[in-house]
Amino acid sequence: MAYGDAPSDKDLKAAWDRFCDDLKHAGTQAFKDANPANALQRADAFRFLTQNLGQAFDLALETKDPAFPQIHYFTTPTMKLGGDVADFTYRQAWISGEHTYRLTGKRGTARWLNVTVQGPRPETIPGTDWPSLHEPFGDIPECNILGSQLETDAEGRFELFIGGEERSGNWLPTTAGSRKLFIREAFDSWGEQPTTLTIERLGMAEPRPMPPPDRMIEAMEWAGRFVSGFMEQWPEHSWQTSRGVCDPHQLNAFPADKSANDASDAKRGRMAAHMIWRLRPDEALIVEMDMHEGFWIFGMGGAFMGSMDFLHRPVSYTPARTKVDADGVVRLVIAHDDPGVHNWLDTQGFSDGNLTYRNLLTQSPAAFRTRLVKRADLMTYLPADTATVTPGQRAAMLLERYRAIKPRFGI
Question: In what residue span(s) does the DUF1214 domain sit (predicted)?
Fold first, then answer.
């Protein structure tokens, strides 16, 4: 038996060749102007590509049948997708408005949980001529439920029904265009535990059918668009379309007039702001924000806006893990090496990157201030009571981070 002996051989090979061409094209985007021309970040672009290549067919085929739903982590410590933020977990399940689903689990202790039904994915962002973000994104939130709204038993167990006839209690409606369940959980203190979840379609009685050639061809085409899309659109899509991202030429400062905070953001359960930074080897950047109520997260990302190595490095801060100065100001320091300041954000050797702010419990944007200084003079710009750490304390902090984050992903 050889190529050509089965009737679908020609079509399958052609689809695979197209996918390989898409993958080859995606690799050329590693050298785009938006990715700094240094060895570390050019290599990281290919890492960004290969990490997501690993999940391309999980999204395109293995979890894609809404009649046999599965929950899929699409970002992890070893798989980043543009716009993900450290201290979040991101899960999704493909669904359809034709079916009714039961989501069951046990509520964890993470400070924030949001389950959203996502609707159709338009070709362009509503009200604009800008193309929607690549698959599996670009869809429009239809409805959501927060963890604080879930009804649970005494041990935190719950059932959440999605679609079908209206129910009292834990229920989310769907529409004919509903296509995805988007689940985000955010963690504050290191001791918080994740929510366990599983999903099933009501009425499942038969095994899932094996994918025939036409389904495999469809998956190859979807995966090809996926790998091309995320390499082409990050980070430029955010520069052009997001209200929370500044002009890339406005470096080292949060925009005063931009924040992602509209009706769709409310359904997502957050507001956001964003800054592009650039540091020379002898520079450091001080980021200030007046301390305020709510649950906020600062997270570092690379040129393609994937989160930095949050498993091993101090690249994110939340209220429970941040030292606030006596004057009520949160001060973070972005620097290439450890300055001995508690609130240090590690660049992991990158010359350029981004810093994202998320506020999950209030809709009031913070006021940010930044100051670019010489690394050698950093401490002269910080209050005398700035919290500092020894190398031994930093090592202990990193180990605490490592041990706390792994259970979020079951690793």
Answer: 93-182
